[in-house]
Design a protein that fits this description.
Elements lengths: L1 E8 L1 H4 L22 H8 L3 H9 L1 E3 L5 E3 L17 H6 L6 H5 L2 E7 L2 E6 L4 H9 L7 E8 L5 H23 L3 H5 L5 H10 L7 H13 L3 H11 L3 H16 L2 H5 L3 H25 L4 H15 L3 H8 L19 H4 L2
Parallel strand pairs: 1-5
Antiparallel strand pairs: 1-6, 2-3, 4-5
Helix pairs in contact: 6-15, 7-12, 10-14, 11-14, 12-14, 14-15
Length: 341
């Protein structure tokens, strides 16, 4: 039986939803949540008064799909005043619908004989763990387990080479080897503003929309703000190096699917530059910047650029002219329009 390598960041097992204790912005708003078939069956057969409560908050659309019904202001009917899940409190973790059980985790991302379990900065509690409980460096946990999956030797070799490259990038980002690309080499203000214009935002999410509106306003003064920001905030480069390593740890795996290193590699540095702009906006607004501001900035970035496939692909876009170029027949022809729209 084959062995597969499984990796997760150390914060993965530490994560636990803490509701009002630390939550900046509950994820239990603005969704008609799709229900998986197992949970639908479980709720339909749940006995007693609580079963009636579950069923009252489900609905079926014209195509037969089941959803959790929103309450006023898009609030999930199972969200308590403490921002905790009533279903989980009452019936246990296994009673949650699958999508709620997954977020902010992403499980079993597979590349060859390698598996990765991830977390998302869009959850402020994940960001809090990353910046306050794991020191100055990204930490991961590696285990090996048996698998019946068949993986070709060629794919194993490619995966091994990719992971070696990724691990080198992660190390280099954390030890300062790529500081010039992180803190000195930027796209123009016009190019960054174009990225912000092309991004899709959660409709009605006022916090992120307002932040990015203000980010646009600081672009003409960004060089001046950078100098003051790094002078005043000695930990800032450590936090951003660590975040860059986080981006590289997850995004560079996409090279197997994308067939190219340029897009995923660009997305690592572009992600840090956009996150830096959010940090600068907070610094400009308050005149100071601390770890709570770093947590908030990472959360806002993750909310926009980690959970939208459109925005993930936007970060990988190398140039707007790519759609007008011709590529050799068979060279990732199906992916090219998505990667370089």
């Amino acid at each position: 039986m084959a062995k597969i390598k499984r990796e997760k960041l150390s914060v993965y097992d530490d994560f636990e939803c803490r509701g009002n204790t630390t939550c900046i912005d509950s994820c239990c708003f603005a969704w008609d949540l799709p229900m998986d078939s197992e949970t639908v069956e479980y709720y339909l057969n749940y006995e007693g008064e609580y079963g009636d409560f579950l069923r009252q908050n489900m609905f079926q659309d014209e195509k037969g799909g089941w959803y959790i019904r929103q309450k006023e202001h898009g609030r999930c009917p199972f969200l308590t005043s403490e921002k905790l899940c009533d279903v989980r409190l009452h019936a246990g973790e296994k009673a949650q619908i699958k999508i709620c059980d997954i977020y902010p985790r992403e499980r079993n991302i597979t590349v060859g004989d390698y598996r990765q379990d991830r977390v998302l900065l869009a959850c402020s509690e994940v960001a809090r763990l990353l910046y306050t409980q794991t020191g100055d460096r990204l930490e991961s946990v590696i285990t090996f387990e048996e698998s019946t999956a068949e993986v070709s030797e060629e794919l194993k070799s490619r995966t091994e080479s990719l992971l070696a490259f990724r691990d080198g990038m992660v190390e280099g980002l954390q030890n300062g080897s790529f500081d010039k690309s992180l803190f000195e080499s930027y796209e123009t203000a016009a190019e960054l503003e174009k990225l912000l214009d092309d991004a899709l935002y959660f409709e009605g999410h006022e916090a992120s929309e307002e932040v990015f509106k203000r980010v646009r306003s600081i672009l003409p003064r960004v060089d001046e703000l950078r100098a003051g920001f790094y002078d005043a905030t000695k930990e800032a480069k450590i936090w951003l190096r660590k975040t860059a390593a986080y981006f590289a740890h997850r995004q560079l795996l996409d090279t197997i699917q994308d067939g190219s290193i340029q897009g995923p590699l660009l997305s690592v540095f572009r992600s840090v530059h956009l996150l830096e702009l959010i940090c600068l906006e907070e610094f400009d607004k308050k005149g100071t910047f601390d770890v709570e501001d770093m947590i908030f900035s990472a959360h806002i970035f993750g909310l926009i650029f980690e959970v939208s496939m459109h925005n993930i692909l936007l970060l990988k876009q190398i140039r707007n002219t790519a759609k007008d170029e011709e590529y050799p027949e068979g060279e990732n022809s199906e992916l090219r329009p998505m990667l370089y729209p």
